[in-house]
Amino acid sequence: MAYSTISKPSLYFNTKIYTGNASTQSITGVGFQPDLVWAKSRTSTAFHIWTDAVRGATKIIQSNTTTAEQTFANGLTSFDSDGFTAGNSDDINGNYNYVAWNWKANGAGSANTDGSINTISTSVNTTAGFSISRYTGTGANATIGHGLGAVPQVVIARNITDAEQWTTYHVGLDATAPQNYHVRLNTTDARVDEASVWNDTAPTSSVFSVGSSGAPNGSGDNHIAYCFAEKKGYSKFGSYEGNGNADGTFVYTGFKPAFVLSKDIDGAGENWFIHDNKRNTYN
Prior knowledge:
The chain is mainly β and about 280 residues long. Helices cover about 5% and strands about 35% of the residues. It has helices at about 90-95, 195-200, 215, and strands at about 15-20, 25-30, 35-40, 50, 60, 70, 75-80, 85, 95-105, 120-125, 130-135, 140-145, 150-160, 165-170, 180-185, 190-195, 205-210, 220-230, 260-265, 270-275. A 7-stranded antiparallel β-sheet has the order 10-11-18-13-14-15-16. A 6-stranded antiparallel β-sheet has the order 1-9-3-4-5-6. The chain has a 3-stranded antiparallel β-sheet with strand order 2-8-7, with no helix packed on it.
C-alpha cells in the first residue's frame, strides 16, 4: 500500500519567494492556480494578506489584525494558471522581498447544504484535505458544511463583515476536548476557553460547529472558513511539549514538511512562527 495518495505535494501547496517591483507583475512558478494566497513582505512591517478564490481577487483580509475585509484594487488582482498577478500595494508588491504561501482548493466552488447554515460557496480539494467556505452567520448555534469528507483537524474562521478575532480550532489544543478552545491567529494570546465559539462541539466528516460568538457566526455577517483535514504523507496536525533546549524537541510528522505553523498555547505574549522550505529555516 502506498504511503501517500499524493505523489507530488507541490501541486497542492507551494511556497513562492519573490522580489516586488512597486508596479504590476505576474508571480509565476507556483506550479498550479492557487485558491488561497497568504502573502507577507519579508523586509518590511507590511501586513499579512489573505486572498482566496471564493471571495475573489482584490478582496483581502489581514491575519495580524481584526480589520474587516477590504478591497485592494492594487493588491492580488488575479489568480493565474501558474501563480497570481500582483498590483503595486506595499503589502504584496512594493520595493521589498516577499513570501507567498499558496494552497489549491477548487476554484470559486459552489453551495454546500450539509449544515444548518447553507454556505454561499464551498471550494473543496478532497485529495489534499483543504476547503474554503463562505457563509452568512446567524448568531445562534449552528453547523456549516466543509465538504472534505473527513474530519478537519484545523478550522480558521473569520468574520469578514465586522472587526473580529481570527478564531482557530486545532486538534492539538487539548488532549480530550480541543473543541472547547480556540487560538487567535491575530494575537499572541494563549488558548482561550470560550463555548460560544465552537459550541464545545467537535467537527465531523461533514460539518463544523459554531456558537453565538460574532467572530465565527455574527448574525447577518459574511464569514470565511478555511478547513484542513490530515492526509498521510502530506499534512500533519498535532501538539508537542517544549524542552527549553537549544536543540529543541524532535516532532515526528512522518515526512519532510514544506510548511510549519506553530504557536505556544500555554503562555500569553508568545508569537506565532512560520517556517518553510524556501526561506532560511530561521526566518
